[in-house]
Design goal:
Layout: E1 32-39, H1 57-64, E2 67-73, H2 79-88, H3 92-95, H4 106-109, H5 114-120, E3 124-129, E4 144-147, H6 153-157, H7 168-173, H8 208-222, E5 229-238, H9 246-253, H10 287-317, E6 324-330, H11 349-352, E7 356-359, E8 372-379, H12 383-391, H13 405-409, E9 420-426, E10 429-435, E11 439-444, E12 449-454, H14 472-486, E13 494-495, E14 498-499, H15 510-513
């Protein structure tokens, strides 16, 4: 019976989403793209890659649903230049960032970026997490950025900047129950370049890794359902601070102790050792401290792995899994004590070798190869053309990377590159290298030290073969490959077809240096 004065409600259409901006039955004609970039994760730190200690079950599943590139590299392996390569699709020779330097205006130096091109071609573009650009609020072509750059020394200490003005995570953290107005992610005193490790001291949902995923899930409610999206999820970890949640820290603290490899050549850089220093770049810790460092580092990786599963489940809840491609990379690795190095910037595998997983959207690539491992040598500059090809967008002439989508789908398109060239200014010199993932030739510019490694027989780079008579012709070939990359460089690294040691070095090309504001 109907009561007087009441109205019979109109039934909702069955296709109406059950949540705000939520699941939709109508489908777009281009894939959504999620680009996950973690900070400072070694290429071997996946259980899918056979690591003896680290467990990454959800990244392993992503690899089974796509393609893992086993010989992927960061050609300029530190945060700033690596992200320039990632965003622009350019080699260091083209983007001009040869080393780590803050304070270079991003847009002036690099106007054409992955997000800007996708945005101009109908994609909604969102970044959440670490950017590591200048100014800190530069969007680099994204529609919007929710920012957490971590303990950024440049942002904290120079120019009188207000931290809250360029860190959305810090603003959010200070509003949480039990955190006062002076609360900080540095409350435990563990710094962003420190080898000191201890568990996270706040509630786990307050951790920056959780925050990135929480923000991403919240954004899924607010996205424009009539546009495909590029969502850039950029985690500050496993970069120090090495402070994962207690459960993740304990998993590895109670696990086996592994002595880092030390090559027969590692004394070459002993003049810059700082043994025992908590922010060391070169040196050795006592065994207990090193074990705690690796436990914190591996714990950060496993924590990210768990949170990514939380995000992947959210994609499924929004009925977006079949329509969304996922690419997972790191900007560079971490030496973690190998050859008495910590941190990054050196040419060795712990620093330069990175994870690279491509999982095309199933609806748009139903016949793609799944669960394969490819051994072509690839690099971060290949991410931009890969994602543009997924989106059906023309690759700009500014890009010199190459799409790996054909390799990931089984649609091989002829011969691949023979090698990549990498470099980084470090220890007051230029560290240069060329590799195809099977062999590697390294040259340190100050005194002209040379190294040659057979990565197939010696993946830990324990033996320098540069003076092995049996390898003389091979070494000469690889030396000339480096010469070809450095010929005509402004530093004068090559003269009359030979490498020239002792030349002055810089962190960027002259045209980039001209953009840096003067005091």
């Amino acid at each position: 019976m109907r009561l007087a004065g009441t109205m019979t409600p109109t039934p909702l259409p069955v296709s109406t989403p059950s949540r705000a901006q939520g699941p939709r039955r109508d489908r777009l004609d281009r894939p959504n793209i999620v680009l996950v970039c973690v900070d400072q994760m070694r290429g071997d730190a996946l259980s899918a890659a056979g690591h003896p200690v680290v467990r990454t079950p959800h990244l392993d599943e992503l690899a089974r649903n796509g393609t893992r590139f086993s010989r992927a590299y960061s050609a300029t392996p530190s945060c700033v230049p690596a992200r320039v390569g990632l965003f622009t699709g350019q080699s260091s020779a083209r983007h001009g960032r040869y080393g780590y330097r803050d304070g270079v205006p991003f847009r002036a130096a690099h106007p054409v970026t992955l997000p800007s091109v996708l945005r101009e071609n109908g994609y909604q573009t969102q970044a959440i997490g670490k950017m590591h650009v200048f100014p800190e609020r530069a969007r680099c072509g994204f529609d919007d950025v929710r920012l957490h750059d971590g303990f950024m020394h440049f942002g904290r200490r120079y120019g009188g900047r207000n931290l809250i003005a360029h860190d959305d995570y810090l603003t959010w953290l200070q509003r949480q129950p039990g955190v006062d107005a002076h609360g900080d992610y540095f409350d435990d005193g563990v710094g962003c370049n420190s080898m000191v490790a201890l568990p996270w001291t706040k509630p786990e949902p307050y951790h920056p890794t959780n925050w990135v995923v929480t923000e991403a899930i919240d954004w899924l409610y607010r996205r424009d359902p009539e546009q495909p999206f590029l969502l850039y999820l950029s985690f500050h970890r496993p970069h120090a601070p090495f402070n994962p949640p207690q459960w993740a820290f304990d998993r590895y603290l109670d696990g086996p102790r592994v002595e880092p490899p030390r090559g027969d050549w590692s004394a070459v850089f002993d003049d810059v050792r700082t043994d025992g220093f908590h922010q060391m770049q070169r040196g050795r810790q006592d065994p207990e401290s090193h074990h705690r460092t690796t436990a914190g580092y591996y714990g950060n990786i496993t924590h990210i792995d768990q949170q990514l599963n939380r995000f992947f489940e959210a994609l499924a809840d929004f009925e977006l899994s079949e329509d969304t491609a996922v690419v997972f990379v790191s900007d560079h690795g971490d030496m973690m004590g190998d050859h008495d190095f910590y941190r990054k910037s050196v040419p060795y595998e712990g620093s330069s070798h990175v994870p690279f997983i491509v999982s095309p959207a199933r609806r748009f690539a139903p016949d793609a190869e799944r669960g394969q491992v490819r051994d072509e040598v690839v690099e971060l500059r290949d991410v931009m053309p890969t994602l543009l090809e997924m989106a059906g967008v023309e690759v700009p002439d500014t890009v010199d990377g190459r799409s790996v989508l054909g390799l990931a789908t089984g649609d091989d398109r002829g011969p691949w590159r023979d090698e990549i060239h990498g470099e980084h200014t470090y220890f007051g010199q230029s560290l240069q290298w060329v590799t195809d993932g099977k062999r590697k030739f390294c040259w340190a510019s100050e005194r002209g030290e040379e190294q040659f490694f057979d990565l197939e027989a010696d993946p830990a780079e324990l033996t320098n073969l540069v003076d092995d008579p049996a390898r003389a012709d091979e070494v000469a070939d690889w030396r000339q490959r480096l010469v070809s990359h450095l010929t005509d460089r402004e530093e004068g690294f090559v003269s009359d077809g030979s490498l020239v040691p002792g030349r002055p070095v810089r962190s960027e090309a002259g045209w980039v240096a001209d953009l840096v504001p003067t005091a």
